[in-house]
Design goal:
Elements (H helix, E strand, L loop, with lengths): L1 H5 L5 E4 L5 E6 L9 E4 L5 E4 L4 E3 L18 E4 L5 E6 L2 E11 L2 E6 L4 E5 L6 H7 L2 H8 L6 E5 L36 H4 L3 E6 L17 H6 L10 E2 L18 E4 L13 H6 L2 E6 L5 E2 L2 H10 L19 E5 L4 E3 L13 E3 L10 E2 L4 E2 L28 H8 L29 E2 L24 E5 L5 E5 L8 E4 L2 E4 L1 H11 L4 E4 L1 H8 L3 E2 L5 H7 L9 E2 L12 E9 L6 E2 L5 E7 L9 E6 L10 E2 L28
Parallel strand pairs: 6-14, 19-23, 20-30, 21-26, 22-32, 28-29, 31-34
Antiparallel strand pairs: 1-2, 1-5, 2-3, 3-4, 7-8, 8-9, 9-10, 11-17, 12-13, 12-15, 15-16, 18-19, 23-24, 25-33, 26-30, 27-30, 32-33
Length: 646
């Protein structure tokens, strides 16, 4: 029934008590005490429980119904005793707010009469003023392309189980079956499997309640003694995590504004600074009642319970609202799945601006080598690990060690970044020397922490039409920093063939596989034009004794300068990521099916927290003026925008 309720938005219903017909504008959720907000033709509104109405099936019952949901959804923030003008009998009448119930306010007029109105009703003078000004609408919503609202995903309300001392095992958890959780926000999966994501303010944690096991990082020690740190009264369950008040109705609004600040209205959302200022701490409570404080404890718990639930389904960032979902307004073009069913999770496409369709391409999840391209994927040329701990110890994982040793600044591989690589399947910063993931020859399982870009696309995304930048991609839920988004794939050409294709069809979707050159530019002593090492050593300037090395590229006998991925005619959703001068995504070279340095995989990861509804963009790093006679203007609208790409 919960899934059915989440699809009720915009449905026509008839109340059981009075046969009154209305339309649902807000689904039942914790923030509104599990009631549906119903709007009526006369402009009034009411919160109704599920059992008190029925869904209208026959259109004859609503043929004279004139009320519809106004998009974009802009709500006026009202407080008791606020004074406001309300449209009554075609006249603006003075009224005072008597009470507020979530998004419905009761107004008292001068003649003593009362009326309940929805906070998004155009009969409220501040909203009527906004709706008459396209400029103010764009200021609040971010423009036509961003019309939509943040809603709260429906999750089961679970009563916290009191922890009883026991030895955790497989029976402590509900079995995770991936196919049952397709097309879901991965951060919601634990909540649907009996976990609770709990928030507490740091100031409310009682040091006296901390036991000796609190200082321990051994999950077995924690299991041996109940280690609850925060009193129940100071915590908030995942159902209320979407805002810092458990009963706040604002969590469902795309834009909520104060009635007294119409001219300076701005979107009201809970930012990371809001959460940080209150020093939130996140805990996960397992189905057996054990409270876990960080990713390490969760990982150890999953291992002990022999669970297939993946570690990147958890997030301890307090600014992540795991139940926030972006729901866009109905568009003129809607495609349920632009991946043509090839991705496990569908990626919808929508156009709210015009009737243009997205380009017709061959959707592919891997690069497609063309003539004269030979990738070495022979298994005997791959390093393999023998790990049985999900490759959590990078010192013993052979694949993780390749990543670490690639960062070496000395020939003996002693000066390295020992923590290079993924941390619980997230990557906090770009690693220019590349990441070597585990492969099919390795002994580790699919839940391995070093298998990331080879996984299917897990985050929920949507392709949408922008006003000035063609098609783009937006996040449909909050995404933590360091999360994998997708790869960039397409036709794989040699430099010569790519040059021919560029002359015929353009190079807008070209991506050079130039990891070798990038790394060698960062490391001292490499010269791309060195042809004879001994000769260069003899001619080296005595004042610059640094040894020069021949480029790795020159040791390959194919004579190709660089290979190029072209996503113009074939590719995946990575081709739709736009440029931004202030990006929230970065590019990372990775290796999995081949360790050939000429053919890294191109993967996108978030470089910062991404809010539901936010567009995903990376920095193309074009150099202005590098192509004579060609100019491309930038329309990213970032505060640091350079105004030009080329």
């Amino acid at each position: 029934m919960e899934c059915f309720k989440s699809n009720m938005l915009g449905k026509y219903v008839k109340l059981n008590k009075c046969e009154k017909v209305g339309i649902i504008d807000e689904i039942a959720q914790a923030a509104n005490n599990n009631r549906f907000l119903v709007l009526f033709p006369d402009g009034s509104a009411e919160y109704v429980l599920w059992e008190n109405f029925r869904v209208i099936v026959h259109s004859s019952e609503v043929k004279n119904f004139e009320t519809e949901i106004i998009k974009p959804r802009i709500l006026i923030k009202l407080n008791p005793e606020d004074s406001i003008k309300v449209l009554t009998n075609n006249m603006w009448t003075d009224a005072r707010v008597e009470s507020v119930d979530c998004n419905i306010s009761t107004f008292r007029f001068e003649d003593g009469s009362r009326e309940k109105l929805f906070a998004g009703s155009p009969r409220l003078s501040p909203l009527a003023s906004i709706l008459s000004s396209p400029q103010q609408i764009d200021q609040i919503t971010g423009g036509k392309e961003k019309f939509g609202t943040i809603v709260q995903a429906v999750v089961p309300r679970i009563k916290q189980k009191r922890y009883v001392l026991h030895s955790c095992s497989r029976s402590c958890m509900v079995k995770f079956i991936p196919k049952l959780h397709r097309n879901q926000n991965p951060l919601l999966i634990p909540l649907r499997l009996g976990w609770i994501r709990e928030a507490a303010t740091t100031s409310s944690i009682d040091p006296a309640a901390t036991t000796d096991s609190e200082a321990s990082t051994d999950i077995e020690a924690i299991i041996a003694s109940e280690a609850s740190t925060a009193p129940a009264a100071s915590t908030t369950s995942a159902d209320a995590l979407a805002s810092d008040s458990p009963a706040s109705p604002d969590s469902t609004d795309a834009a909520t504004i104060s009635a007294s600040s119409v001219n300076t209205a701005t979107t009201s959302t809970k930012s990371s600074s809001d959460m940080n200022s209150k020093s939130w701490t996140i805990f996960y409570i397992s189905p057996c009642g054990l409270r876990l404080r960080d990713m390490k404890e969760v990982s150890l718990y999953l291992d002990i319970c022999e669970s297939d639930l993946e570690i990147d389904s958890f997030c301890f960032d307090p600014w992540i609202n795991v139940r926030d979902e972006f729901r866009v307004c109905p568009g003129k073009v809607y495609i349920p799945d632009i991946t043509q069913g090839k991705e496990i999770n569908p990626v919808p496409c929508i156009n709210t601006l015009d009737t243009e369709q997205p380009p017709d391409i061959e959707y592919s999840m891997t690069v497609l080598p063309k003539k004269n391209v030979r990738m070495n994927t022979a298994p005997e040329f791959l390093t393999r690990c023998l790990c049985t701990d999900n490759c959590q110890d990078r010192k013993t994982c052979a694949c993780a060690q390749l990543t670490v040793k690639a960062t070496a600044l000395d020939g003996d591989e002693k000066i390295v970044l020992e923590d290079a690589g993924y941390m619980y399947r997230r990557l906090q910063d770009v690693l220019i020397t590349g990441i070597y993931e585990c492969n099919d020859q390795c002994a580790c399982s699919s839940t391995c922490h070093n298998r990331v870009q080879q996984q299917p696309i897990k985050v929920k995304l949507q392709v949408f039409k922008t006003e000035k930048r063609g098609w783009g991609i937006r996040a449909l839920h909050d995404i933590p920093q360091g999360s994998f988004i997708s790869k960039y794939v397409g036709n794989l050409f040699s430099a010569e063939e790519a040059n021919e294709q560029g002359h015929l069809h353009g190079d807008d979707y070209f991506c050079e596989l130039d990891l070798i050159e990038i790394v060698e530019r960062q490391k001292d002593g490499y010269e791309s034009d060195v042809t004879d090492i001994e000769e260069e050593e003899e001619e080296a300037n005595q004042d610059d004794p640094r040894k020069k090395f021949k480029s790795v590229r020159s040791f390959y006998k194919d004579g190709v300068d660089v290979y190029i991925v072209d996503a113009l005619k074939a590719g995946n959703i990575g081709r739709y990521l736009n440029h931004s001068c202030d990006p929230n995504v970065f590019v990372q070279n990775t290796f999995q099916e081949s360790h050939d340095l000429r053919f890294p995989n191109i993967a996108f990861f978030t470089c910062k927290f991404v809010k539901a509804g936010e567009e995903l963009c990376w920095n193309y790093n074009y150099k202005v003026g590098s192509v004579p006679g060609r100019r491309i203007d930038c329309h990213c609208q970032a505060a640091s925008c350079k105004l030009r790409l080329l």
